[in-house]
C-alpha cells in the first residue's frame, strides 16, 4: 500500500471503512472491555476474572474468548449469549439463565452450574471436567465431544440431551432425570455412574459402553443390551 499514490491510499482506506460499516449494520463495532454489563454487550476476548457479576443481564451478549475465571455469575441472564472459547475455570453460575447459550470449546474445570437453566444450550467440545450440574435444567443441551470427566448431574433434567462422542469417564448421571430419548452415541463411559436410570429409550448405547459403565439391577437398558456381571461397581 505504501507504493500507492497518497490519493489512492486515502481512497482505499475510505472504502475499507465503508465496507466495515456496512457489515456491522452502520456502525464500526469493536469489543469495549470497559462497558458495563448489559444485554448485548460485547466483551469478546476481555479479561473479567474474579468479579462479582451476580444477577447481571448478559442476554445475547458476546463473551467469546472472555476470561471469566473465578467470576460469580450467579442468577445472571446469559440467554442466547455467545461464550465460545471463554474461560470459566471455577466460575459460579448457580441459578443462571443460559437457555440457548453457546458454551462451545469453553475451558471450565470445576465450573458450577447448580440449579442453572441451560436448555438447548450448546457445550460442543467444552472442557468441563468436575463440572457441577446439580439440579440444572439441561433439556435439549448438546454435549457432543465434551470432556465431562467426574462431572456430576445429580437431579439434573437431561431430557433430549446429547452426549455423542463425549468423555463421561467417572461422571455421575445416577441422580439425573429425563423422559424419552438421550443420546450416548460413541460416548466414552468408563465408570460412568448410571445406577437407577431408565435408559430403555436411550440411543447410541452399545454393549461395550455398558460393560465399562457402573449400573445396578434397577438400571433399565435398551433392548438387546444386558447387565454386565461386574455390576454394581465398587464405590469409587
UniProtKB/TrEMBL annotation:
Domain of life from the UniProt record: Bacteria
Signal peptide from the UniProt entry: 1-30
A Pfam family it matches: Pentapeptide
UniProt KW keywords: Signal
Alphabetized Gene3D superfamilies for the sequence: E3 ubiquitin-protein ligase SopA (2.160.20.80)
PANTHER family given in the database record: BTB_POZ DOMAIN-CONTAINING PROTEIN KCTD9 (PTHR14136:SF17)
UniProt protein name: Uncharacterized protein YjbI with pentapeptide repeats
Provenance organism: Rhizobium mongolense
Organismal lineage: Bacteria, Pseudomonadati, Pseudomonadota, Alphaproteobacteria, Hyphomicrobiales
